[in-house]
TrEMBL record:
The lineage of its organism: Eukaryota, Fungi, Dikarya, Basidiomycota, Pucciniomycotina. The keyword Aminoacyl-tRNA synthetase does not apply. SUPFAM superfamilies: DNA/RNA polymerases. It comes from Austropuccinia psidii MF-1. InterPro entries: DNA/RNA_pol_sf, Retrovirus_Pol_polyprotein, RT_RNaseH. This is Reverse transcriptase RNase H-like domain-containing protein.
Amino acid sequence: MTQKRIQAYEKFKYALTNEPLLLIPDWKFPLKLYIDACGKGLGAALHQAQIVNDKTYERPICFISRKIKHTEARYGASQMGCRCILWSLEKLHYYLDGSVFEVITDCNAVKSLLNMKTPHRHMLRWQISIQEYRGNVTIVHKAGNIHKNTDGLSRWALPNTPYNAAYVPKSAESKFQLKELTSQMWGQNPLRKLEKATSQIRIDIF
C-alpha cells in the first residue's frame, strides 16, 4: 500500500471517530436550525451550543436532506426557502416542539414569513402553519457566502424515497398545507373572508 493511500485511510478513520459526532440534545439550552434550499434539494442541520468545562461548544444533533419534488421545481428562490423551513419543522418536530430555537437561513423571505402582511395563497398556508412556534422561534438571516454547513446538504441531497428519514410522499398532503382550511372554509380569498368574519363578531361587556 502506498504512503498516499495510508494517509487517506488515516484521514478517513479520523473523520469517522472525531467531530462532528452527533450530540444528544440538552433541553436546558436553545437549539439552532440551519436550513438551505436550492434547485436540487432541501437541507437542514440541527445544532446546539452546550457548555463543557466553562467553554461553549456548538455541535450537530442531526442532518436531514431530500431532493425536491417535481411540483416544487416550479418554485422561485423565496418560495423554495419558505418550503424548506416548513419541511424541516415537520421532520424535526419532536426536537423543536416546546423548545426555544433559532432558524438560520440565507433567504430573506424566510425571515419575513412569520409577519408577512399580504402573502400569496399558499404562502398564507405556510404562515399559518408555523404560528404554533411563535414565541419560541427566532429567524435570523445569514449571508450565503458564510452559510456553508447546509449548502452541501441541499446540493447533494438524498433521494426522496422511503429509505430516507426526511422522505415526503408525492401524493401525501403535509399537515402544514392545511388544504381544507383554505379551500373549504375560507375559499379563494382567505384574507377577505377572515376580515369579513371578524367584522361580524360582537363582544358584549357586562
